[in-house]
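Objective 1.3, modelling of assemblies. Example input:
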Amino acid sequence: MSDYAIEAHGLVKHFGSTRAVDGIDLEVPAGTVYGVLGPNGAGKTTAVRMLATLLRPDAGTARILGHDILREADTVRSLVGLTGQYASVDEDLTGAENLMVLARLYGFSRPAARRRGADLLEAFDLTEAASKQVKTYSGGMRRRIDLAASLVMSPAVLFLDEPTTGLDPRSRNDVWDIVRVLVDDGATVLLTTQYLEEADQLANRIAVVDHGKVIAEGTATELKSSVGSGSVQLRLADPSRRDEAARIVAGLLGEPDAVSLSPDPAALSARIDSTADGSARAHQILPRLHDAGIHVPEFSLGQPSLDEVFLALTGQPTDTGQPTDTPQGSAAGQTAEEASS
Amino acid sequence: MSTTDNPTTATTSLRSAVSLENRPSRPSPVENTLTFAWRALLKIKHVPEQLFDVTLTPIIFTLMFTYLFGGAIAGDTSTYLQFLLPGILVQTVLIITVYTGFTLNTDITKGVFDRFRSLPIWRPAPIVGALLGDTVRYTIASVITLGLGLILGYRPGGGVAGTLAAIALLLVFAFSLSWIFTIFGLLMRTPNAVMGVSMLILMPLTFASNIFVDPATMPSALRAFVDVNPVTHLVTAIRGLMGGGAQLSDVVWVLVASAALTLVFAPITMRLYRTKS
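Predicted structure (tokens):
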């Protein structure tokens, strides 16, 4: 048997004349986080719904821990947990009742189901809201109860469909921490996201999906190096000197196109060739600006962001438009290692 | 950085919660179904508004028809009440059956149903359980209608046994009829569409029947419809059981119709449920 927790070959799903999923292959090693990254409508959710036995593929096969999603659907259902906009909890019931209903469905006795619910509520910091209806929960609490609901049976494989969409940064970090703990504990997580930073932060490997197809696959680092360049990010103390700084950087790199101005009036970034020469020139930037009397309180040098990767792969920018999606270069490189540790 | 700056007690309890030691064995289909029925009751507890029309509709209809039309139709209101009450009972319960489809569709649009579909449970359990939970609503409505009737002066000639048998028969038929509305619940886009279409079907079925008046006074075309309308047969059987002197053939007809409804529409519902995308 293979070591893959999730294996999919040539999955296809049509809706009318639209090929929502157009031949997706995935191989997810057990005990890792796998990111499926793509814009809205790329087919991520449809793919997850097929893997979780909610939707019958038109073509292709998939196995979860060696069990075929069609022929052994029931076994697959006992192994996976699912959280997404479409697999939700009952808003009319309280948090405790929702978990208890699920625990009873899995076969816990009444007292055991109550205990299981209480344990999960505590683990997800929801004890105080246990007897409140879920419709009164905040966005972050709501996402935590959804996650708790998918963990009632401690599934070996967890599908998280856009787990942090619409969450504030703090709640998002809570969800990320939860995912890290789960994987640490041996679970396999497949996570779909349109946030590049999220895949970068959490996933050991990433599949970039567009128009129902995987257009690139690899670790965050591999994806970035496939683009063939790095980048430098600068933030100036005095925005009025940005044009001057841009000229200096462009001159130093010998390529005016490499410099781009950020929406932030004090910031600019530049593409760096991934050659020894490119890197050497990049290191000249800071002293050169210093000589010109331009104060640079923030400077980072690193691999390109996944935003840039997506742009390079599809020729189109992602339309997520969230400022948090663009991790600073150095931070991105660092966290790819963290996620795999 | 966003990473774990505080590996708090929350993380510890999360770790212990995810490392589940005693995994329960898989429950039986009956247990699964009862859990869903329990869920339906929890929903009634949290959203008691859903009982408003269950309670108000029969009260309004009984009072309105008895005192507004009763005298004109039957000569005096108490004679009419004696005729009307079993029919109102049927109408009340049948109208509530459309909520089955409405609730199911709400679960689908809110994403609750996909969670259930992703669980390793007996597949029909969510629907059968919901239908069982609905019988609680039917029972409440029956008790209210009957109670009001008794206050207004209705006296069941069939006694307690006949009345209980009538309600039981009505619940069986309502449960079977609900399978039609579960189909609407699975096919339509919004809960309100389910409601609208279901009412469109139920209104003619309940009014063009023998619930309110004796069909003998109707034009022949309408009477032909009333005679084949299953609601008419149901009302005849219920009226017989409550008033005393029920024909066995009427009761058997209702039981056969219930079985037929279930045998035809339950498999269609389950097929739609399995292949729902």
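The radius of gyration of chain B is 23 Å.
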